[in-house]
Amino acid sequence: MNSSLRERATLALFSTPPTTRALVLLVFVLSILRLVVGRFGYGEYLTVTPYNSIPCIWTFVTAGWIETGFYSFLVNIVVLTFAGRYFEQAWGQREYTKFILIVPTISYFLTFFMQFIEYAINMNTTYLVDQANGLGALLTGFLIAFKQIIPEHSLKVASGAISVRVKHLPSLLLITTTFLFIIRVIHTQFFIILAGAATSWVYLRFYRVQEGIRGDRSEAFAFLSFWPEGLHPILKPISNSLYAIFVKLRIVPNSGDGALPTHSRSGAGGGGAGQGAGAAGLTTEISDAERRRALALKALNQHLSQASATPATSSATATPNQS
Compositional bias (Gly residues) at which positions (predicted)? Predict the structure, then answer.
């Protein structure tokens, strides 16, 4: 039994792409370093702390790779290994590296500002010393990416008694963490997860490039797709207004047709030729997004086929040496 577990662990390690292996090592090293310096009262020099992170700006980078809890370290390392392997094979090393650098760093900037806003509202000085760290932002980003790539796949739990589609997992996570935040079970972790979801969605929706296609403007990955349809009439004008603000601030690019690219094509304003041009432009964007998703799935299948063939080839090569 133990031998079988060791073999599986070894196989998982050697089948993991190099960038993900490096990330696992980075989390291990930084978590140990945080444990050591924390004993001398210097833990805040590696994690995001509202009163200390502006002069120590490197903490916005290091905080996302530090786990301070033993069980959270073990669980998140396993999730990072398998999810990281999936996306490194699906996206390629370059795009995967960009994602894992951008999402945690920006997420911890946002977490920092949310902590300050909370302090400004409550004027509770304990909020200024709350330390934020962990893989929560990146792993939430992976969950958003799973919704983008395989939205209709089902995750079965309890021996298949419960089946949840991948596209619903981000919403379930956000609802659960919001509830836990309201009843005071979690605190800073809520900000981290919220920031991770927002950052990863904006990056994947508007910026990530694959096969010459920038972003994913499909309705299946729209902002409103994260919420029940009954809430769409309420959320649509809010999301339209936020999008207009973000365009003016140059946080996201303009869709070019005056319509919010976070909902359906029916949101286009104007009429006549302008409306027709907008609909045509949005249709092209949706077609490009669907093509991008198909290419991603094709690349993933190819990478997984190569990965599964590697252990078999190694085993066949090693057999003559044993005789």
Answer: 267-279
Q: Residue 267: inside a domain, yes or no? A: yes
- Contact indicator for 240, 267 with CB cutoff of 8 Å: yes
Query: Does residue 107 lie within any of the structural domains?
Result: no
Distance, in Å, from the CA atom of 144 to the CA atom of 194, rounded to the nearest integer, reads 11
With respect to residue 254, please indicate whether it lies within any of the assigned structural domains.
yes
The structural domain count of the chain equals: 1
Residue 256 lies in a domain: yes
DSSP 121-186: HH--GGGGS--B-STHHHHHHHHHHHHHH-TT-EEEETTTTEEEEGGGHHHHHHHHHHHHHHTTS-
pTM of the model: 0.79
Q: Is pLDDT at 138 greater than 50 in this prediction?
A: yes
Q: In the predicted model, is pLDDT for residue 277 greater than 60?
A: no
| Backbone Cα Rg of the chain | 22
